[in-house]
Design goal:
Blueprint (H helix, E strand, L loop, with lengths): L1 H14 L13 H26 L13 E4 L10 E4 L1 E7 L2 E8 L8 H7 L7 E4 L6 H9 L3 E4 L4 H4 L2 H4 L9 E3 L4 E3 L5 E11 L5 E9 L8 H4 L7
Parallel strand pairs: 5-6
Antiparallel strand pairs: 1-2, 3-4, 7-8, 8-9, 9-10
Helix pairs in contact: 1-2
């Protein structure tokens, strides 16, 4: 952008074109291009500044660049709203606070490993945390350290509802054949293992997801209840 602007300005100087302004003035094509590139360059500098302030986050407060917009549980209107804040993690042992940590991350699960490293000197055997800290990455980290995780599942309350238990499209409500590595739906059809899908979490943790597929759902009377996607073909 800078090189382009220099070339345009040099061309303007060589041609002797003077910039004009004011209502009713007719600008030359070269002046309009130079003004447009100048505006783009100004925007680019602003975006680069925002990216430096964000430092990997997706938001920041103009009044406090270190604060991240987070959805608060309650406010004076009794509803959740996005407000700039910090994520405070507190470690408690026998009702005593043993460690605290302030994070800019909105997601609780991403704060567990950094916090665990801060309290590693205590050599805790059992780790108890609420559902916000549940993730495969955290479970793996705790297991590798020879510790036991007591973390409430994120869907614990939902899994106790009648709607959840009667949802035939959930694998938790299907039969599983360990020998064949397949699930059996409510109509007796098998969902077989067709391969693995490899992705990475936002923190770079590798995730492997097994994909199961049913060979024939075309004429199933419960197809609309089982398939969640908009494309039910």
């Amino acid at each position: 952008m800078k090189k382009l602007l220099k070339r345009l300005e040099k061309k303007q100087q060589e041609s002797g074109t003077e910039f004009i302004s004011g209502k009713g003035s007719r600008k030359t094509p070269l002046q309009r291009v130079i003004e447009k590139v100048t505006e783009y360059l100004k925007r680019q500098k602003g975006y680069e500044r925002d990216i430096r302030i964000l430092n990997g986050r997706n938001s920041y407060a103009k009044t406090d660049h270190d604060a991240t917009f987070m959805r608060m549980k309650e406010d004076h209107m009794r509803n959740g709203q996005l407000k700039p804040g910090y994520n405070v993690v507190i470690g408690v042992d026998s009702e005593y606070i043993v460690e605290t940590m302030i994070s800019q991350d909105r997601n609780d699960s991403k704060t567990l490993i950094p916090f665990m490293e801060r309290i590693s000197r205590f050599h805790y055997r059992n780790i108890v945390a609420d559902s916000g800290f549940e993730s495969e990455e955290n479970y793996t980290y705790i297991e590798k350290n020879g510790q036991l995780a007591y973390i409430k599942p994120s869907n614990y309350e939902q899994s106790k509802t009648k709607k959840y238990k009667s949802d035939i499209g959930r694998r938790e409500n299907m039969g599983y054949d360990e020998a064949d590595d397949s699930y059996i739906c409510s109509m007796g059809n098998r969902l077989k293992n067709i391969g693995m899908k490899k992705t990475k979490s936002a923190a770079g943790y590798p995730i492997e997801t097994t994909i199961y597929e049913c060979s024939d759902c075309a004429h199933c009377p419960h197809k609309s209840k089982c398939i969640k996607s908009n494309d039910k073909t």
